[in-house]
Amino acid sequence: MRIRNRMIAALIGSAIVITAAVAPVDPAVATTAGNSGAGSKKPRIIVMQDGEVDDMDSFIRLLYYSNEFNIAGVVYTSSKYHWAGDGAQVAPYRWTGTKWVSSYLDKYATVYPNLRKHADGYPSPERLRSVYKVGNVENVGEMAKVTAGSELIRKAILDDDSSPLYLLAWGGNNTAARALKSIQEQYQGTARWSAIQQKVNKKVVIYNILNQDDTLSGYIKPNWPNIKIIDNQSQFWSFAYLWTRQVPAANQPYLRAPFMEQSLLTGKGSLLAEYRTYRDGKPTPGDDENTRWQPDANTDYAVHDFISEGDSPSFLYLLDFNGLRSSENPTFGGWGGRFAPSASGWIDTSDVNPTTGNADRAYPQTRWVADLQNDFAARASWGVSARYSGANHNPRAAVAEGTDLRRKPGAKVVLHGRGTDPDGGALSYRWWQYTDADSYAGAITLTGANSRDASFTVPADAKPGDAIHLILEVSDGGAPPLKHYQRVVVTVG
After folding, report:
1. 248-293 pLDDT per residue, tens
2. pLDDT of 3 above 90
3. Which of 139, 177, 417, 480 could form a disulfide with 215 if both were Cys (CB 3.0 to 4.6 A apart)?
4. What are the extents of the domains in the chain?
5. Does the pLDDT at position 14 exceed 90?
6. At residue 10, does pLDDT exceed 70?
7. Which pLDDT tens digit goes with each residue over 211-222?
8. pLDDT (tens digit per residue) in 460-489
9. For the domain 396-493, what is the CATH code?
10. Which segment of 3-17, 85-99, 470-484 scores lowest on mean pLDDT?
11. Residue partners of 143: CB distance under 8 A and separation at least 6
């Protein structure tokens, strides 16, 4: 049993009490925390990936953040870009095989002991191996066959855990469609069908990256029209192969070779040694069409420039440990982008890019690039740091008044921010209005934007029900520099 010192900021009424705590970490608890099913406060996710290079890189990042999730499944699917073939009539296309997932989990096992010294709740490699299943992979959109992957999804949908089940579609939705089809075939026409429909509609949330087969539109939406869908059709490109066109120049250094080499690629262990970048000389077996690895190709990019994590926004959206509360409402926005209501749920939308002054479809994602890259760099260091003191850790932010307030037009709102740093470093503070997330159509005058405490007056033209979003950023001075946020939503009443 290991002992670590932590700084815990506890909100008691309207006062912040800061105490030093000595907390024992039980290895058995740390191994299984967040993965016990019912009652878990961690987002419960099933990853559905198709084995593309960016899926591989997204999977590596996910493993470093796996303590923040209840990972109920890692399911291999096909897509219009990758399929395995059936050994007879259907030939494989850009098929990267199924063994790389197991190989990555073996390499996760080498950093797992160190990761646990820096944060609780990392799932054991054995547990992750137990939920890795191959789904419908023979052809694009194939959903006729019941597979190990579809059965894992079906059982998770029907189990007794009432928490939301997020199906993260990094590839096609065909294996999820097969799972839902199996449920429909079992219960439609029975006395339980209505209750099953209600359960599925309440529980399942699909975070869809592009449309990588036709099963979402061809089967899921027509047969399960009330399943909630968060549809990322374009924002993901800003963290994928097209990032040079969409990420603002000020944030591009965090995706260029010097940052990647220093922060993620050099001396960070065997798992990150698998991380793919442009022109890095690491081919993807089976995917000969993808030539981005060739040192003499794609000369617009330096060797080791970021290549793509187009699927990471699906779980970055759920990372509420940072305080942005993005999973509470897709319109809030956070590390996984921001969304507007649509006929089937939500679809990616625009923020105003301050560099251009124009609505920018990518900016809800690209505005966070520096923060999320620094955060990943810190976790990369966790994996090779055998001592807690050997790496940087996130500060913690809190607001004495709370994070959901109700105020009348003309009322003065005073906010007292506080921060603590588990590493004992100095902290800086910044407040800003997230106008794109507001339902109030205007800007407030914020006093004390660069101090712990801030205030503003609710505008006289604000209408009942209007919401004003204030973000408090608490930053440390570590290497890399890390942040924690608090989102305060002031509703006009």
Report:
1. 999 999 999 999 999 999 999 999 999 999 999 999 999 988 889 9
2. no
3. 177
4. 33-391, 396-493
5. no
6. no
7. 999 999 999 999
8. 999 999 999 999 999 999 999 999 999 999
9. 2.60.40.10
10. 3-17
11. 136, 150, 174, 175, 177, 178, 181, 215, 219
Amino acid letter, 80? K
Q: What is the band of 4 on the pLDDT scale with cuts at 50, 70, 90?
A: very low
| Residue bearing tokens 């004003």 | 468
pLDDT at 37: 33
Mean pLDDT of 335-359: 96
Q: What is the 3-state secondary structure (H, E, C) of the chain?
A: CEEEEEEEEEEECCEEEEEEEEEEECHHHHHHCCCCCCCCCCCEEEEEECCCHHHHHHHHHHHHCHHHCEEEEEEECCCCCCECCCCCCCCCECCCCCHHHHHHHHHHHHHHHHHHHHCCCCCCHHHHHHCEEECCCCCCCCCCCCCHHHHHHHHHHHCCCCCCEEEEECCCCHHHHHHHHHHHHHHCCCCCHHHHHHHHHHHEEEEEECCCCCHHHHHHHHHCCCCEEEEECCHHHHHCCCHHHHCCCCCHHHHCHHHHHHHHHCCCCCCHHHCCECCCCCCCCCCCCCCCCCCCCCCCCCCCCECCCCCCHHHHCCCHHHCCCHHHCCCCCECCECEEEECCEEEECCEEECCCCEEECCHHHHCCHHHHHHHHHHHHHHCCCCCHHHCCCCCEEEECCCCEEEECCCCEEEEEEEEECCCCCCEEEEEEECCCCCCCCCCCCCECCCCCEEEEECCCCCCCCCEEEEEEEEEECCCCCCEEEEEEEEEEC
- Spell 240-277 as b/e; 16+ CB within 10 A means b: beebeebbbeebbebbebebbbebbbeebbbbbebbbb
Across the chain, mean pLDDT equals 92
Sheet holding 404-407, edge to edge: 404-407, 483-492, 467-476, 427-433
Q: Class for domain 33-391, per CATH?
A: alpha beta
Pairing of strands 427-433, 339-342: unpaired
